[in-house]
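Re: beginner question about structure tokens

> Can someone show what the tokenized structure looks like for a real chain? I only ever see the sequence side.

Sure, here's an example I had lying around. Input first:
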Amino acid sequence: MQYRVLKHLSTGPRKGDVIDESELAKYAIEPLIRVNAISPVAYPPLDALPGWIRRSELCGELGITDIGEFLEADTEYLAEQLNFQPRTIKKWKKEAASAVNVTGQKATDRGCQGCGQ
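And the corresponding structure tokens:
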């Protein structure tokens, strides 16, 4: 799950960033939600991105309908299933991530280094 940062966190993420739950201590998530420091992300559908209607249709055939599901999906799996090179999928992920301001280690792992900064 991913969370939008609502208040600057001492661990580095700034207000507006989207971070993966793996970047937070499990015990800290609920208290941070209670004090409105973070909030679970509700991602928009893929077809909400400009120029993504066809990509949305292709991903929809795999059961992937929103930006969060797309970012979480394995790049190699998407490349194989959609018949595109992994570098193309990484480019798409970077584009999708920048649309929702994804930052942090997990985003870097997904090939989205510098997204939203």
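Each token stands for a local structural state, so reading them left to right follows the chain. The chain has a mean pLDDT of 85.
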